[in-house]
Design a protein that fits this description.
Helix content is 31%, strand content 10%. With 146 residues, the protein is of the alpha/beta class. It has a domain of 93 residues: Glycogen Phosphorylase B (Rossmann fold, 3-Layer(aba) Sandwich). It has a four-stranded parallel β-sheet. Strand 1, helix 2 and strand 2 form a beta-alpha-beta unit. The longest helix is centred in the first third of the chain and has 13 residues. Keywords: Glycosyltransferase, Transferase.
Length: 146
C-alpha cells in the first residue's frame, strides 16, 4: 500500500496515477453513497474509470439529484442481486452506465461445509452474514454484543 492515502486534495493526475500503479489498480471500486461520490472525483482527477457497487440499502433510498447525476457519470455499476439491480435501474435515465449483477461468491471447492476442526468453548463465537452496525438494527443484530 502507498505511504499516504489519496484524498480529494492530493489526488492530482501524477499522484493518483503513481498510487494506482503502486497498488496495481485500473479502476477504483466504490460503494455508495459517500464513497462513490469521492471515488468518482478521484477517478476523474486521476484519469481512470470507476465502478460503483450497490449492496442493497442504498439502492432502495430516494437519492438526491446530485447523487443520481453521479450514478449517471459512473462508467460501470454493479449490484449484488437482481433485485438491487432493478432498484438501481429505476434511477438510470440512459443506457450507460452499464449495470451488471455481481452476486456474493463463495468458492465451494475451498470452503466446504463440515464440522469445525477446533472448538472455542472458552470464548463467544459470532457468525454474521451482513454488517454488524448500530445503523442496521433492522437486521436483528444487538449492538450491545459488540
Amino acid at each position: 500500500m502507498p505511504d499516504s492515502a489519496v484524498t480529494a486534495r492530493n489526488a492530482g493526475p501524477r499522484r493518483g496515477r503513481s498510487v494506482a500503479a503502486e497498488i496495481g489498480t485500473d479502476a477504483p471500486i466504490a460503494a455508495p453513497p459517500k464513497a462513490l461520490l469521492f471515488g468518482l472525483h478521484v477517478a476523474r482527477r486521476v484519469g481512470v474509470p470507476s465502478v460503483g457497487i450497490f449492496h442493497g440499502l442504498e439502492a432502495w433510498a430516494d437519492w438526491s439529484h446530485a447523487f443520481a447525476r453521479a450514478i449517471q457519470a459512473c462508467p460501470g455499476l454493479a449490484a449484488v442481486s437482481r433485485f438491487t439491480a432493478q432498484s438501481v435501474e429505476r434511477w438510470l435515465t440512459r443506457a450507460d452506465p452499464e449495470l451488471f449483477c455481481l452476486p456474493p461468491y463463495i468458492d465451494t471447492a475451498r470452503f466446504v461445509p463440515g464440522p469445525s476442526p477446533e472448538r472455542h468453548d472458552d470464548v463467544a463465537v459470532f457468525l454474521t452474514v451482513g454488517r454488524l452496525s448500530a445503523w442496521d438494527r433492522y437486521k436483528g443484530h444487538d449492538p450491545r454484543t459488540l
